[in-house]
Amino acid sequence: MESGVCKRNGFVRTLPVNMRTADNIYDLYRLGNTIADVNRIISSKQVNQVTYLDVYTEFTLLSSMIQSIIDDKVVPLDTCKSNARSLHDSLSEITREFLKEWREAADSDAKSAAWSKTIAGWRISGVTEGIKAFEYVFSAELAGAALYLVEQVGAYKTSILIDAADSVFPANIRSQLPPHAVNDIKAAGRCLAFELPTAAGFHIARAVETVLLKYFPALPMKVPRFRNLGRYIEALKKEGVKKGVDAKVLAALDQFRDLYRNPIMHPDAVLSIDEAQILFNLAQSAISAIILDIAKLAAKAVVASTKP
Description:
CATH class of the largest domain: Mainly Alpha
Structural class: mainly alpha
Largest sheet: 2 strands, antiparallel
Distance between the termini: 52 Å
Number of strands: 2
């Protein structure tokens, strides 16, 4: 699946191209408040007595917010956009007309007079009707919008699982993860968030397998002919002791294998959401132990190469 990139809380995060964060959802509240302010100001006077001073700030702010709706910067919508554009045009025509007159004013007195000038009643009525039309369609479309609340899974924040599951690893380990492992860890996190436990197990097992493939050359050991997680673990248990495999690595991998059964090899094997969380945690321990052991082995190799 293609991806898009966003940045939040210091992490660069990769999301599927058809998924986006609702970072600006508070803007919907601000939009409602601004519309209420505009309606209050207009209703406080006769329609032909509203001045530029009365509404310029609110009209400018509302115009900007409506443009955000048109540009899909808050929630992607379709039906209300025609009404949004009409309202935006009505607001912009009034603010542009004022700015033109204010800039062409000869002196400060003329500029002050521009603020006090009343706006044509038909223009104000156009804004009022535009707001009513926009609100009617906007509220109806929001009622059917594809907005979902994804509840937290375990101790993991939903935002972390959806777009940065690899950030559960310390920075020194995360920087050493193979790119394919990172992709599978992120996929596992999203599957956990959306309660697809068996899929989460599949992806996190692939991540462990990818990291193991980086471990064998570091020992050094030959990668088993039959490439699957079970064979890798068996080879490490069989030959790993004399190669210096860390006992913590073997213990973590054993725990992982005890819980995980490959759904491709065993179609009847399914994970519960609780089992998937445990598997994710075990994989985190196993991957961390492997990456740390690779670093130790590399350090030993450097020391050995410097000896006469």
